[in-house]
Amino acid sequence: MAPRPTVWLDMDPGIDDSWAIAVALSRCSVQGISTVAGNVALEHTFQNTHDVLQVLNHSEIPVFPGADGPLLEPLITAKAFHGEQGLGDYVADASHIPAILADTPRVWSRWAQHSTGVSDTHLIATGPLTNLAIGFLAFPELRSAWKSITAMCGALPGTEMDKAKEFNVYVDPHAADVVFRYGARVQMLGINVAHKALVPIRDLSLLPQYGKTGRMLAKMLNFYTIEARGEGGNPDAFPIDDVVAVAAVSYPEIFQWRELPLTVVREGPLRGTVVISPIDVQRPAVKVALDIEVPEFLAWLWESMETYRA
Ligand code: BDR
Ligand code: CA
């Protein structure tokens, strides 16, 4: 297991994103969180991130707003899975959001200017990749600024799930393509692997042990599982894709990877499909997840939750 990696989370909370925040705080040093429109509008993903951090007693972590919609397409949300405001049935205590003027790509650029060479920070992206794409286009020095970039998006080309099934790449296919084109040390954790790491429904009964964090997640997951249950092919279990992305950085030994140059179908009926890019020699290889050891993942997940035991 990686010794407590330093990470930055770029995300659209979102219910599995929220669980990913909790697990990342347990396993990693979280430098900051940037938010993007995706599961719900930016105003909610930004607010939700603050609300979740407050419950986790980590309001000191800086949160930044990013893009309020995809590069070129209108925003599509996932309210069926995440609820009208993004956290299902969870209603936060009244919280205060400090006014923040800087937006995410500019914040990253200032950070990159102050670091020398490749940083020790791993970026974990669990929403549409719009912030990252804007960052790469506006501030080219960001393209190789992170030690790794793990994106929960897409599916391994050639698998039965690879046709326009994954939300983050479908919502902003142009952004995903920019990331595959320009990003250094990119890892793609697709739903072909994330949907193997299913949580049995009966495990929800473990949550009350974990104090207010457990109660918050239980409220969210009661809503989420109405839609997500069965998504990975097992009616008695549900996927938590964004948490698996944290595992890919914290516990990479339980994954198998393969390097492939990738591109994304951006228009038409196959929009959002990730394909191998054989003719574009300029494309860097992306490390694509092939498989995961599921029992080890589930043990890691619940051990991560021990941080919150009441
Ligand atoms: C992705 O879509 C979103 O709804 C989830 O938060 C996750 O990031 C899975 O396709
Ligand atoms: Ca997400």
Provide the fold topology.
Blueprint: E1 6-11, H1 15-27, E2 29-35, H2 42-55, E3 63-65, H3 79-82, H4 104-114, E4 121-125, H5 130-138, E5 148-152, H6 167-171, H7 173-182, E6 186-189, H8 191-194, E7 199-200, H9 211-228, E8 237-238, H10 241-250, E9 255-264, E10 274-276, E11 285-292, H11 294-305
Parallel strand pairs: 1-2, 1-4, 2-3, 4-5, 5-6, 6-11
Antiparallel strand pairs: 7-8, 9-10, 9-11
The structure holds beta-D-ribofuranose (BDR) and calcium ion.
Overview of the structural elements:
With 310 residues, this protein is α/β, with parallel strands linked by helices. The protein has a single domain, classed as Alpha-Beta Complex (Inosine-uridine Nucleoside N-ribohydrolase, Chain A). Helix content is 35%, strand content 18%. The strands form two sheets. A nine-stranded mixed beta sheet has the order 3-2-1-4-5-6-11-9-10. A two-stranded antiparallel ribbon has the order 7-8. Helix 2 links the parallel strand 2 and strand 3. Helix 1 packs antiparallel against helix 9 and helix 1 runs parallel beside helix 10. The chain is globular and about 50 Å long. The structure holds beta-D-ribofuranose (BDR) and calcium ion.
